[in-house]
Every structure is written in C-alpha cells, then in structure tokens.
C-alpha cells in the first residue's frame, strides 16, 4: 500500500511538472498572427477561442485600409478569426456591425461573430499546426493565410484568396444587405434555409449523404481553397511556423479578385 501511495505521488508530481513545463513553453513561445487589411475600407478583425482555450489579447480591434497588426496566441491555441465590416460602436446597441458582429462589442471577449462571415479556423500545435478558411456559415470578405517563409519549418502553408467577389454574384435568397441596399455578405444555404440536406445533419450527417449543392458550388467556384459546405474537401493545410500572415482582400476588392 505504501508503494502504491508513493507511485501515485510520483505520478502526480510528474504530471504537475509536465503541466508547468507546458505552461512555461506556452508563455515563452507564442505564435504570432499578422493581420493585414488590403481592403479599401476599414475592417474590425476579431478572434474567438474554441471550447477550453483562452481568450487571447486583442480579440477585437480596428484596422484601417493598408494597415497591419500583430496579435499573439499560445502555441496550443485553437479558435477562429474573422473580419467585421460596417461597424459603429458609438450607438451602444447590441448590433454594432453589418457583418461578423459579436453582440455589439468592440472586443469580442470570446463571443463568436454572427454569421455570415468568412472564418479562418486555426488549430495550433508546437510540432505542426493546421488551418482552413470556411464558408460553411457564409461569406463577407476574401482572405488568404500563409506562413512567414522565414520561420516556416515544413509543410503546405498557404491558402489563397478568391477568384470572384461572392457578394457580387450572391443569389437574392442568400443576400445580406445594408441600409442602402448594398450586398455586404452572402449566407450559406444552411444558414439561409436551415434544412438538413444543406446543413449535413441527421439523415444527411455523413459524407456519403451530404453532397455539394448549387449554392456550395457557387462558393467553390469563387473560392476553391475554402470549405464551401461541411463535408467539402479542400486541400489539407498544415505546417509548423511561429508566424502566420492573414490578409483580408489579399488581391484587391471588386467583382473579380485574382487568387
């Protein structure tokens, strides 16, 4: 019994040492995201952690055209990043932005943005991280993601932008418009209709049952590197880097955007 207690104590001590080392590693080896605004208008980028991950500093900020901002996350962080558009934080309402709003907050404080909004989804790991861009809930802006080649170790580390501005070809039934009637975002079919066949759930909750549809094909044609629906299969993107560059409107803004 004494040996059992000693063994348990030793295991607990080892676990505590490992957790301390992991915490120390996370604090001393953060991953940097350089967020760039190449759009001709101001955006308000934001982040939200996945369950069990911390809210990172600078989780909501203003980014004028042509400017960039560095934000940092722990090396084992996972979550999402998106850009809000058409924001006015002087109204003190619970809806400050035309797209991507997080309950009217300037700093989202872990609140997920209201769709539709183009999402950069990130899963960081010390050895190899993965990321994707998702239109599963809809689109508001094109975005590219790539690792800083000076710090990259290995792997496929680039997601390109879009060949077309989806807002310009969005079907009327998916459109989100501002007060002047301008299309500012495009809903996914799942978000617009809330049907199992579009949302890949229940009887359609498997790759064999849930297929691309006319709406997801429109998204895929415009942005081939993004997830266009839940069981889409874009190229896998994973690598090891300490710095990632996330650029909104990577090649400009208009009806046709070169990838």
UniProtKB/TrEMBL annotation:
Bridged cysteine pairs (disulfide): 39-249, 87-97, 102-108, 157-239, 162-223, 170-186, 190-199, 200-210
Q: Which PROSITE patterns match?
A: THAUMATIN_2 (PS51367)
Annotated keywords: Disulfide bond, Signal
Please give the Pfam families that the UniProt record associates with this protein. Thaumatin
Q: Which SUPFAM superfamilies match?
A: Osmotin, thaumatin-like protein
Instruction: Report the InterPro entries cross-referenced here.
Output: Osmotin/thaumatin-like_sf (IPR037176), Thaumatin (IPR001938)
The positions making up the signal sequence are: 1-28
Q: State the family named in the UniProt similarity comment for this chain.
A: Belongs to the thaumatin family.
This chain belongs to the protein called: Thaumatin-like protein
């Amino acid at each position: 019994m004494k040996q059992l207690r000693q063994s348990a104590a030793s295991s607990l001590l080892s676990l505590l040492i490992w957790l301390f080392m992991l915490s120390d590693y996370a604090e001393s080896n953060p991953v940097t995201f350089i967020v760039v605004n190449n759009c001709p208008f101001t955006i308000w980028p934001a982040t939200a952690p996945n369950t069990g991950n911390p809210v990172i500093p600078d989780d909501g900020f203003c980014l004028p055209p042509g400017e960039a901002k560095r934000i940092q996350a722990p090396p084992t962080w996972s979550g999402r990043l998106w850009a809000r558009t058409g924001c006015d934080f002087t109204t003190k309402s619970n809806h400050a932005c035309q797209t991507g709003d997080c309950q009217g907050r300037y700093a989202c404080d872990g609140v997920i943005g209201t769709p539709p909004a183009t999402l950069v989804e990130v899963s960081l790991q010390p050895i190899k991280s993965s990321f994707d861009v998702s239109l599963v809930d809809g689109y508001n802006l094109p975005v590219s993601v790539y690792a800083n080649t000076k710090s990259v170790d290995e792997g496929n580390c680039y997601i390109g932008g879009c060949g077309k501005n989806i807002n310009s070809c969005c079907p009327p039934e998916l459109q989100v418009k501002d007060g002047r009637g301008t299309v500012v975002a495009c809903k996914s079919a799942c978000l617009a209709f809330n049907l199992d066949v579009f949302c890949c759930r229940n009887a359609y909750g498997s790759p064999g049952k849930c297929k691309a549809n006319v709406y997801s094909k429109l998204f895929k044609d415009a942005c081939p590197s993004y997830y266009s629906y839940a069981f889409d299969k874009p190229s896998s993107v994973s690598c090891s880097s300490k710095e990632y560059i996330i650029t909104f409107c990577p090649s400009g803004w208009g009806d046709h955007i070169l990838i």
